[in-house]
Amino acid sequence: MTHISIHWFRKALRLQDNPALLAAMKDCSEVYPIFILDPWFPKNMRVSVNRWRFLVESLSDLDENLKKLNSRLFVVRGRPAEVFPRLFKKWKVTRLTFEVDTEPYARQRDAEVVTLADEHGVQVIQKVSHTLYDTERIIIENNGRAPLTYTRLQTLLTSLGPPKKPVPAPSLENLKDCNTPVKEDHGMEYGIPSFEELGQDPTKAGPHLYPGGESEALARLDLYMKRTSWVCNFRKPDTSPNSLTPSTTVLSPYVKFGCLSVRTFWWKLTEIYQGGRTGYPFIDAIMTQLRTEGWIHHLARHAVACFLTRGDLWISWEEGQKVFEELLLDADWSLNAGNWQWLSASAFFHQFFRVYSPVAFGKKTDKNGEYIKKYLPFLQKFPSDYIYEPWKAPRSMQERAGCIIGKDYPKPIVVHEEARKRNLERMKAAYARRSPDVAAQAQDKTSKEGANQKRPMASSKAEVQTKKVKTKRS
Hints:
With 474 residues, the protein is α/β, with parallel strands linked by helices. The chain folds into 2 domains: 236 residues, Rossmann fold; 175 residues, DNA Cyclobutane Dipyrimidine Photolyase, subunit A, domain 3, CATH 1.10.579.10. The chain has 22 helices and 5 strands. The protein has a 5-stranded parallel beta sheet, with helices on both faces. Helix 15 runs antiparallel to helix 16 and helix 20 packs antiparallel against helix 21. The longest helix is centred in the N-terminal third of the chain and has 19 residues. The protein starts with a strand and ends with a helix. The C terminus is likely disordered.
């Protein structure tokens, strides 16, 4: 069946991650994107001129983005219960889609609209996308009751797994068989409201610091997400309430109006946490220092270079060279390239069986992990026994430290001993083809290491003497 759809924009004033909008466009010949200027809100809610301005700009931006899809936004005036019966008949609508809204007035309003749609034979599709999780599902999982503590909520969310990933914005392909009928006088009947229509004086608005709309939201998100170190080390208590410029992102207005999808925000943060991070605090602390300060000790350079290449991740030294070339204050092209070839054992250095441990190497000079605590402050409450290997800490200890491994900080990206063993075999095979003598030396070296691991620990002189005496007596 080919539908004539209305998509009802309310809070989700965006194209990206709008599953209800995509549902409206499926198997559709005509689609009408609408926003209803409901008189209930100005009568029952206190709305400043600044917030009206933000809404108007968000609607204008949405209309401009719809134009790129050969569509338009229809701003309709009136109560939804009065508007929809008229629109259902006028446009011969067969389907209505909108995002789930959990607020009290919205629930009552939407229930009334669903009843009206049913009376007019209109299919209704509602999609969850304003919240990370379906709130009704959470209540069901909690035996029909709302969780009363944040800890209980976190427990429920852990059992549900991560939020759904955001869906892509609609494209011209989505609308290839679907059009939006727009008349020449569209602006007269369905145009964006003016300040005068809203009863607002634009001269009373404050400084124009935070323009409304999805375009501004995504630009602002990208701007802050580029500051990976700042994001990874962000702690709300460390921000200032009276700084001359905001010490946080000021993305909350965009999330409130749905110009920015909360799921897009969540997954973007997750990508950064998991991608600037390896799960090995020593390695991550080194890279954090490099990104923020532009310098790291030469042995720290060795540790991360070995980890990236032959030690653990088996990634080309050329990728590491690019990162150092960008971030190091003392970056020198020839030295940088030469050192990366050396540390990866691609050239100059052939003892590839000597691998830096991402755990043991740092412990040699910093047993208590003060370096890690400085550059990864969210791990500072872990005791020294676990600071280099926080994934080994009991769950109760992780909770006391305020950092759950696998959630607030990733688990190790690889198991070092397994990766080391696997990569040694790869290196041996590579050297066997190019340098048989070196490969044989490596085989002898690793064989001795294996034998030493199986051999009992050497006894002290006193223990040896005691054994001799016992032998003679027997």
